[in-house]
Amino acid sequence: MKIFFKCILALGTICTLYSPVATAQEGTKDEKKVPSYKSDISLDLYQLFSNGKANVMFRYGTWEKGALRIQLGSSYLSNRENNSSKFDTIPDPPNSKFKYKTGDIDVRIGYEFHKSVNKHQIFYGSDIGYTHYFANNSQVNNGVIRNNSISITPFFGLKYRILPRLSASMEMALSLNYYVQSAFSHQNVKLAEDNELSLSFFPLRFLNVSYHF
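and the corresponding structure tokens:
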């Protein structure tokens, strides 16, 4: 929850700092039409700050009507820890340490429709996605987990054009997800397999900062 409010605060600060600049540039002239750049690339700040996952999205379309969107995401974490407690008086030998690795990679493709009024925009649509997740714990025999999932995700969001080439947006979503999870030994022998269909609601899915070109 702290990450959520930090991201909202950061987004609000950006809008506060840049909005007066954009207004000053317009002066007393009538508000100009938003430049019609066909493409933009976005970085998701919410996932980046909450769990270290990098999500980059590319859109191609128009500000007024809609856009095709493609997103790539990835994360990786690796730790090496001792089996012994920090309160043990005799430390474990170096080879007693175990390694834990986890990560994921996903790709999503979809389309969003736009309802735009000057610099403000409502967008909605859906995407389909594929995710591969893995975890490897060298301490236990069945410490290798692989998870493959597909999803269909309707979404809804709000966007504001801070500058002609810079915008910020927030997105919520409802995701229907089917996954198959397998457990393997370190000799790559399958020990178990499970599958599940789930429905998840994300009040804040992405918090994107976008550059238009």
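(Above: one complete record from the training split.) The chain is about 15% helix and 60% strand.
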